[in-house]
Amino acid sequence: MLGKEEIISPNLEELKSHYHSIITLLGEDTEREGLLKTPERVAKAMLSLTKGYHMDPHEVLQSAKFQEEYSQMVIVKDIDFFSLCEHHMLPFYGKAHVAYIPNGYITGLSKIARVVDIFSHRLQVQERMTLQIKECIQETLNPLGVMVVVEAKHMCMQMRGVEKQNSITTTSDFTGAFNQAKTREEFMNLIQHGTL
C-alpha cells in the first residue's frame, strides 16, 4: 500500500490562506463541505508539483558517478514527466528521451530520470526544461555529447485558448558528438523504433 507523501513547508499556511481567497474570489463558498479542505489540498499539491526548486540535479548525478571506459551511446527513453506551464500554471506532460556518450564516466540510469523529474517539478516552459536537462548532464558528467528530446501535450492548449486536443510539442537540444547528423539520426531511430 502506498503511503502519503508528507508535505512540510514553512509556506503551507500562507499558501492555504491565498487559495482560500482565490476560491472566494471565484464566487464559491469556502464553508461548503466539499471545499472545506480544498485550500490545504491545493497548497500541498502545489508544493509537491514544485518540489524541484529544492533539489540539486547536479548532486543527484554526482551521487552515482562511476569511472567506466564505455564510450557508446547510453539512452534512457520514455521517461514520463508532468510539469506546470509557467504562463498559465496548467499541466503539460509527456515523455523525455535522453542520450549521452560517456567520456570516462557514467551515472546510474535512474539518476537520468531523476534529473528530468527535478526540472519538471518547477514552473516551466518545455524549451527551457529541455535545455536544462542537457546542460546539467553535460556539466556534471562531461560526456562526449548529450541529446535530449521532449514530447509533450499542453493543457493550456487543450483546455483554453486554441483548444487543440491532439497537438504534441517536440523539443530537442544536443551537444558534442550529437552535432553530427549521423549520431542524431541513430539516437532518433533508437527512440522511435528500439523496443525490448
UniProtKB/TrEMBL annotation:
User: One GO biological process from the UniProt record?
Assistant: tetrahydrofolate biosynthetic process
Per UniProt, the keywords (alphabetical) are:
GTP-binding, Hydrolase, Metal-binding, Nucleotide-binding, One-carbon metabolism, Zinc
Cite the binding residues for Zn(2+). 85, 88, 156
Q: Respond yes or no to whether keyword tRNA processing is given for this record.
A: no
Task: Show the PROSITE patterns listed in the entry.
Answer: GTP_CYCLOHYDROL_1_1, GTP_CYCLOHYDROL_1_2
The reaction(s) catalysed by this protein are:
GTP + H2O = 7,8-dihydroneopterin 3'-triphosphate + formate + H(+)
Please provide an example of a Pfam family that matches this protein in its UniProt record. Answer: GTP_cyclohydroI
Lineage, top-rank taxon, reads Bacteria
Which GO-annotated molecular functions does the record name?
Answer: GTP binding; GTP cyclohydrolase I activity; zinc ion binding
* Leading EC class: hydrolase
Enzyme nomenclature, EC number? 3.5.4.16
Q: Which residues form the GTP cyclohydrolase I domain?
A: 16-191
Q: Which InterPro entries match?
A: GTP-CH-I_C/QueF, GTP-CH-I_N, GTP_CycHdrlase_I, GTP_CycHdrlase_I_CS, GTP_CycHdrlase_I_dom
* GO CC annotations on file: cytoplasm
Metabolic or biological pathway, per its Swiss-Prot or TrEMBL entry: Cofactor biosynthesis; 7,8-dihydroneopterin triphosphate biosynthesis; 7,8-dihydroneopterin triphosphate from GTP: step 1/1
- Do you know which PANTHER family this protein is assigned to? GTP CYCLOHYDROLASE 1, GTP CYCLOHYDROLASE I
Q: What protein family is recorded?
A: Belongs to the GTP cyclohydrolase I family.
Q: How does it assemble?
A: Homopolymer.
The protein here is known as GTP cyclohydrolase 1
Tell me which species this is from.
Bacteroides acidifaciens
The gene name reads folE
